[in-house]
Amino acid sequence: MKKVRLGIIGLGNIGSQHYRNVLNGKCPEIEITAVADINPDRLEWATNTCGSYRDSDKSIPLPALYSDASEMMRSGMIDAVVIAVPHYEHPRYAIEAFECGLHVMCEKPAGVYTLQVREMMAAADKHPELKFGMMFNQRTNCVYRKMKEILDGGELGELRRSTWIITNWYRPQAYYDSGEWRATWAGEGGGVLLNQCPHNLDLWQWLCGMPSKVYAKISFGKWHDIEVEDDVTACVEYPNGATGTFITTTADMPGTNRLEIVCDGGTLICENDKLTLSKLEVPESEFTKSNKSPYGMPKYTTAKVETDGMNIQHPAVLNALAGAILRDEPLVADGREGINALMISNAMHLSAWLGREVELPIDEELYKSLLDEHVKTSKRKENITYVFSDFNETHKTIL
Length: 399
Description:
The chain has helices at residues 13-23, 40-54, 69-73, 90-99, 114-125, 142-153, 173-177, 192-195, 198-208, 284-290, 314-327, 338-354, 364-376, 384-389, 391-394, and strands spanning 4-9, 30-36, 64-66, 80-83, 103-106, 132-134, 159-166, 213-220, 229-237, 243-249, 257-263, 266-271, 274-280, 300-304, 358-359.
């Protein structure tokens, strides 16, 4: 195999972006040989778009078009599939793809609730010969990669506190009105935590590790006419006793994106795509034992951290998938890691519903039963079947 034959399920906003990235030559070891979408207009778009690139490069294949994703996966036309459909559908299509002998790249979030993601993981484990990746493209950002390198290197010592204020996800009411499936329990399974923040939650746990306890104050439809969350303030505790906070909303303008990680030996701050490191000359735990002055403080230096400047995003994740398939190289994110960010967001919802702190791993059966109750009372649930069938027509706004 010289190139990976890729199929895309869903040509909405993100699926069409993956399509264009490959046609643009950003993924040289991948060729798109088939696409699937239930909206015929999107299939026509795929043909026309590919045709414009073939005008200058006839080696680009015209993809086979399918209105049925299952038919595409059984066609023998593809080696791997990208799943870019509504959240609830991610595990179902991934499981079917594994059964068809296909490698899988799944869009975020991994699913809506952890029980269905565990089924997807079990299906992947039955096929160790197949690669399973999660589209956590923010892990390719040079700033977060550098933070990961510093923290994993151990030079800052043990984690003490993490704080992420991620409130620059502003969305007006018109955004939520653009599709009946939006901001409903039946359509999306959540709000800002399931739609905008999966990348942030993944990066948070990737850098700091998984918390052991979560307490969340969540407002549902506080700033918008929606039934799911649009304002979240959560506190967590890590296994070593360190604490963390995660604050997000879709109503602040202009909003803030500041990640601060405090360790025994210093502090990393990421804000406005700039990374700053304040490093103590002596770890605080050592200083406080030897210092004799009542108001003594450890000496420290603060400097901007240089990175390699590379931030390739989605093409980097697809290129890693190709490398994994062709040469057994590492993925950007194994698909099994997708459950971690979802476990945190599920825990936040569960804490808010129960009005108390919850431990991780959560009671997954309890979470599913409470989610089901919300789905049953979802204001727009009667429209969801139609919306799924028309998903790619309404899914034109960036998530």
